[in-house]
Amino acid sequence: MVLLVLLNGFDYMYGALLGDMIGVPYEFDRGNKSKNFEMFNDEVAFSDDSVMTIATAEALMEAGENANEETAKEELIMHMIAWGKQYPYAGYGARFINWFNNPVPYFSYGNGSAMRVSSVGWMYDSLERTREVARWTSKVSHDHPEGIKGAESVASAIYMARNGNTKGEIREYIISEFGYDLSRTCDEIRPAYRHVESCQETVPEAITAFLEGKDFEDVIRTAVSLGGDCDTLTCIAGSIAEAFYGVPDSMIAECRKRLDPEMIEVLDKFVQSQFLHKAGWKSVVHLP
Hints:
Blueprint: H1 2-7, H2 14-23, H3 48-63, H4 69-86, H5 94-101, H6 112-115, H7 118-123, H8 127-139, H9 145-162, H10 167-178, H11 186-189, H12 203-212, H13 216-226, H14 230-245, H15 249-257, H16 261-279
């Protein structure tokens, strides 16, 4: 009970999962590009974005915070395949489905590398280590420079947001380090934006939605209003927004209602591990 009380307010990865769930009903430009929509309805459910987010987190916990590249990649491949086979109809792309049977990188710049990376932004104690591990999580499948850049930039934004950097500082870092164009407003992006699954046409838009949002919910609504690959775009925007704003308890409850028990188990283990790490505790305490 004491540990549960201490963990109150630690909400790692809910932003990504909620963004995925809330974006699902509007994927493939099915929405009306408005911020006014019902946040939680019967169509709100997790997809491949959440499954791979959970898989990545579990893999990195198993690898350990000081793992080398070989160990981390071995764990990532093993857990991503296991979770992918457990949820074979979650909505993966055709090439990624083939990857489950032959886990060789396929030079992809798809936004799958950026949507699964949120745990990396929380786990490590330096921006350099965060970027390094983010690269590894991408390179097991998405080894195109744009795919790697997408994962690295999102993890960097999460790391900076949780460590108290301002939106202006995050924006300038992303521009200078990764070369993304963040000059357009969401109102300028929205009219012509369509469903696209590349990092280079998803990550900048997601970061812009985060930069414009006034709180966590507003970031989610802003991201959904852009349309396009809505679940992934909102997953990315939500992952950064959580690190900056936190997530309302009511939305966390809605998220947990829509997750399977084995996903909640990994999520709780991740929250616990991060609490213990930041508290400087080495012992493992099992959640009831």
